[in-house]
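Fold sample X.
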Amino acid sequence: MMHTSSPGSEESKKNQTWQLYIKAERLMKGNAEEAKIYLDQAREMNTELGDPLLNALIVESLASYYEQSDKYENALKMANDAIVMFKQLSNSGPIAQLGNANGLISLGNTYTKLGKYKVAIVKPEKAVEILLKLGKTGKVHLGIAFGNMGYAYNLLKEYNKAIELFEEAFKISQMTGYKLEEARSLHNIGAAYYQMGKFQKSVEYCVKSARIFTEIGSKKGVSLSYGVLASSYDQLGHLNISERYHNICIEINHDMKQLSDLAIAYGNKGLFYYKISLAKFLNFSDANESLEKCIEAFKLAIQATDEILASLALDSNKTAFSDKFYRWYDCLTGPFNLLGRSTAALLFLNLGRAKILRHLVYRQVKDKEQDEGQSSFESSWLTIENREEKKRICVLSKDIQLLETNATVLFYNFNDAEILTIWESKSSTSRQELEDNIKKLLEKASVGLPRSYSFFKPSTAFHFENPNAQQLSSENAAEATNDNDVEDKDSRNNYRSPAKKSDTLCDLTKDTRSFLHRVLIDPVKSLIKETKLIIVPQSCIFFAPFSAFIDESGCLLSEKYQIQVISSIHALALSILASRSKKIGGSLFVGNPEVQLPSLLFAEEEVEYISSLLNAKPLTGRMATKSKVIDLMSNASIIHIAAHGQE
């Protein structure tokens, strides 16, 4: 017997599906995970109903969920899908046009989080064109669009333009009675004034925004406004008030279990104490108590980011998060150095790098008890807690076989004044001067790099967290966009063909390579007694071609030493320990795989020569496919790749 649903039951199911969607929308601001459950249920029920408008709205809300969850690729896809759906529903009238505009606003927000601010401005601009035609129907969303454009301009440091747009958003929110956008606009104006150094005006606006956020029950909004107030009062010299606001921010985010915001709140409190400590230290006063408070706050920030890093999926989102994660390790060098514990500072920096590398490269370890990496991290942390960092350095030195291999380790880092530190030896070379010379060398060697490459981004250490760094999510605006619409030229790769005349290239770069030897090797050459150099660089120094450095006699550094560049001593120690406990696997040699870049000269000859030494067959050209290389890597103990590098 065939069963058919009655019109009444179908209408009931449709109402139920709409109710699930509405419930998800209400929850999205405060409980995105629960909202996602309702959206999935609504989407499943609508598969049978086939309501195209409801389907588009659900997909748009899913874009909002993914944006809030920092899953930007999914957010972009969902928002673009929703825009296509709404365009196909042109006969649905204003609702479809409104949905299209919301999709564009959503895309702008996601691109803002990805740091593509110019694209982030273009998207809501297109939304504004649509919303102005809708009149009163689009008023609320028009205010949201203006606010989001202002936020992107603020990040571009065009503060006056940003404030102008925030004020437009504020006027519209007052007309529509949309309290969340009203509070958000006031907060953003206050944050922009903070960036301009107008701290009293910043306080004026953020006190108003915090009051409205409190009235409407937005804890996240209250936390963000209090964060700006804490920084503003600090700049105005009202330290007790500033400390109180820092503590309230921590309490709010702890209650909400917002780990990312909690880490920032702890980190900002650490920076607050560091500033107090530094002032006392320079005045020859006792700064120990403030420094200990500073270290404790940074450690709590690290614990919060540790939890986030462990839960992230292995994708580009984890890579993007790593910069924020490492920041607090970098900040800890300041108080440790002021306490005379430079070894602890170095150990912490190494620990941070090793953790990032581990989580980026390795899969989750199933057997926690046999997790050598985690055990090593915990040992380092514990020794620093017990002030036994020098013992831990000795253990690591044994692990990496320093004595057996006649190696010297050089650890490079930039201190709080952006001055280069090489282990415990000081150099007067600034980060900018060094970075400029490395860029010059790469340009002469015809090596192009994306402007947005992470190692060339300015350090954020020792500056208060931008109080406008996190924008409040708009209530009804999902976030995502179409990459085909606008190309972000600032983040575009710009690789060029390799230089062909090596002799000419050597002449062109000689002065620069000599300069790099003077600032990176000469200050510590008296410490180098062995035949091998293990170099642990930071930021732009990763791109310095150490082997090609030239000393005062014209001798290459590689002619004197065997050079190894690593990201972290901890990471090297772990790899050595792992190699001792495992059987030697095969070898993998990859040369000049076919990609959308010019052929890399001599790459194939390089791998053919090296592989011949081990009687191995290399993968070159078309044979070196991504899937084949990844498949063979898991069983290889020796891996050599000669190819273009790309972020």
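Fold sample Y, listed below.
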Amino acid sequence: MKRNREEWRKMVAVIILTAAVIIVPFTQTNSIVVAAQTGTGGGGAPDLHLLESITFEGEIRSAVRADFNGDGTADILLATVLEDDNDDEPNDTIYLVDGSNGEIAWTRHYEESSVKGIVEKDNGLNVILSYSNYLDTEFPGYAFPIPMIAALDGTTGETLWSINTLCLGATIFDMGNKDALLLAGNNYMGDSVRAIDVERGFVLWSLPGFSHFSLIQQASGEPCIITSCDRNITAHDPDDRSVLWSYDFFDNEVYHVESSQDSIVGGDGFIVHYASKSDCVRALIIIDTASGQENNVVNLSKLSVISPYLLDWGHLDGDQIPDFLVGGISNSSEFAVFAISGSDGSELWRTNLKIDLEDLENTFFLKSEIDGNDCWRVLTADRVLEISGEDGAELWSLEFPEKYDRLFPQENDDGEDLVILAATGSTLQVLSIGEEEGGKAHIWIVLLGIVIIGVVVVGMWKRGRGRLGKGDGE
């Protein structure tokens, strides 16, 4: 009898230890599943994890997640602003939160600051931001704003350099022997696109007269600088800035040309979204990067929506010509999304998304892929959903824990899980869409634990039966 009790005690101890091995890994994770498998398309929805939540002083205006100090963990850089402006001190604060311990590594104070980008360095990243430097004048109560752009050391927050310019757009440009900050802005001497030495802040060269730019990859693999102003786009050789070709929109009285770095089309051309003042015609045009000739024009005025605009492009009808994802407000005051064929301008499909019109500035369309077909993840203020590029059908939808004021979608290091920095007032939450890191390992631990418990229970049961049989024989 005593031996029986001892063996049962051993079995219970083994079960408890095994259960502990199963449970402990789950208690060590920092994430909480806030929405799981609520897909509307019959399954296949990822999980939504809340990784962390942090509260700061002031309203959060921008946030970036990356390894700024080079220690292998993702840090968070964010900018906040206090509504009660104090004329004596800057009311914007730049924070860097160390991802390894969650503590604030450094802070800097500016006026009207905005993070424009990040630059790789030997160990970590540097920060590019714009801000205003106010100078006192002879008029009481009036200070003259001077727009500035600066580079900060991501590890220490130290200012590396600063220059006087109104930054309209910035990106990092590989000039072959060194990296440069390609910058569109205004320095009170007119619009210009300039290349800035990222290490010292020197102006390397300038292209005056242009207010916007894009970096386009040519079919040869060489980059091409596209500059634009009100009625013209011009292609420049990146080595000597010579003009390769120029395209004028004067026949259409164009008031807006939109060409972005995301508008690269297969290395052969790029998309320009333009409109005319006279008859409010909006159109998309594909321009060949090498020659500057138009490949195709798609008229958007046929769509029954107000102010249609380009959301993204993809390949949706099986040919090599890019098709367009276009958004606009329908006659029923709903936000409509259209898929337009790039070859003939026909409507492939349309869908109405339940998005508050006031939240459109906080809505993002992120292209993804399922079985080789383009689809889009749509981030709104209160949910994330995925729509098919084939017919616009909603594949799945996940509700956010709350409705957010601002969303800052990031890309995770593994390129698979989508990380979102979501801000409401002064609180920042880090959300992850996808399987939690270590999730598969947890599943294997659970299965292993079940097997161990099963083996112990079956073994004890068999030994008990064997003893019981011997007792009957005696």
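Sample Y note: The mean pLDDT is 78.
Also: The two ends are 16 Å apart (CA to CA).
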